[in-house]
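Page 42, continued from yesterday. The earlier attempt failed because a stray header line got pasted into the input along with the sequence. Redoing it now with the clean sequence only.
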Amino acid sequence: MSNRRFLLLHITTSSGHHRASCAIQRSLLAADPSVVCRSVDAFQYASPVVRYAIRYLYYSLIQHQPDVWEYLYDNPSVHRRVQHLRALLHRYHAAKFRKLVEDFKPDAIVCTQAYPCGMVADFKRQNHLSVPLIGVLTDHAPHLYWFHETVDTYVVPSDEVRERFIQRGVAPEKLRVMGIPIDRDFRERTDPAVTARRLGLNPDHPTLLIMGGGGGFGRMAEIVLSLDHLPFPCQMIVVAGTNHGLLRWVRRQHFRQKVVGLGFVKEIPALMDAATLIISKPGGLTTAESLAKRLPMVIVNPIPGQEAYNARYLLSQGAAVQAGSPSVVRQTVRDLLEDPGRIASMRQRAAEIARPDAADAVAAMLRRASADQVELTAGLSLVGRASSGVPAV
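This time it went through. C-alpha cells are written below.
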C-alpha cells in the first residue's frame, strides 16, 4: 500500500512535542518515501484568544508561580471543572479542523501533546470518525488530560508509565511501550574533538552542556556564574534557545572559565557527544536525547508536574542526580567530575534504559496499522474514515 497519509499534531514549534513529531515524520519517510505526512501546530485550530490564554497562563505560571501550576497539574477536581468548557471549545473549533481532515484524508492521526489529543478525541466522538488516533507521550507523566475513550493507541515511554495507564482504567491492548521519539541523529556518534575545536574549546577539559529547553528557562545565568567558580579548568556550552536576553548576557559577560553561548541550534547531538555532563531541567525530549547519548544529567529547576515525574524516573534509574540551587549545582558537578567511576556508571545506566529507536518503532507501527488495520486495536475498522467524508457537528 503506497501513499499512506499521516497527520501529526503538536503545539508550538520550539517545543519537545514538535521535535517528537518531526522525528516520527522523518522515520516514516525514511522507511517509505511514498508516505505523505503533514505536521501541524494544533494551536492553528484554536481561536487566537484561546491560544494566547493557554500560552500566557502556562509560561507565566511555570516562571513565576510554579506552586500554582503544581496544584493545577493532574488535579482531578480541576479536570472535572474544565471538562465542559473544554468540550465547548473543541466544538467551537471543530469546523476548521473538519476541513483539514476532509481535505487531507489521513489514514491515522498522531498527537504528541495532550491538547491536540483531546481536541481530536472529542472530534472523533462528536463526528463518529473512525480514523485511528494515537497519543504519543513525551514525558513520564500520564496526566488526566491524556485520557479519552476514543484514543485507539497510546505510545508510552516505559513500563512504569504503562502500569499507571492501566491503573487509570486504560485497556492493556491499547498501550505500546516504545520510548519517547527522538531524531535519528541522536543514534549517530560524532567526534567530540572536532566539535570542541570548532567551538574553540579544549578537547581535554571537562565540558558542561547547560540547557533550559527550547525557551532557555530556569536560573541559567546563576548556574553559569556558580560553575564559573569551579576550582579546576572546565568549559561550558550554554544553549539559550529562544531566550535572546540570556544569549546576549553570556556573550557579553567575562568569565574565568571558557564559556560558549549558542541560541536555538540543531546541533544538539554533536554538543551532547562533546559534553561530559549536561546540566538541564528534565524536559521529556531532553532526557530521552541525553539517555540516547549516554550523557549523565544534573537536574535543575524541574517544572512541577511533568518534569518532576521525569526527574523521579531518571533518579530512580541512576542516570541522573539532582541539585536544588546554583550553589548546590557547583558542588554536585564538582563531586561528579572528581569521581570518573560514578560518571561511567551513570553512562552505563543511561545506555541500559535508553530507547533511541522509538521514532522508528512508532513509524513501523503506523505503517503496519494503516496497511492491515490490526496493530492499533483489535477489531478497529477504517470503513468510515475521513476519505468517506466527516459528518457535520
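Notes: The first helix runs from residue 16 to 31.
Reminder to self: strip header lines before submitting.
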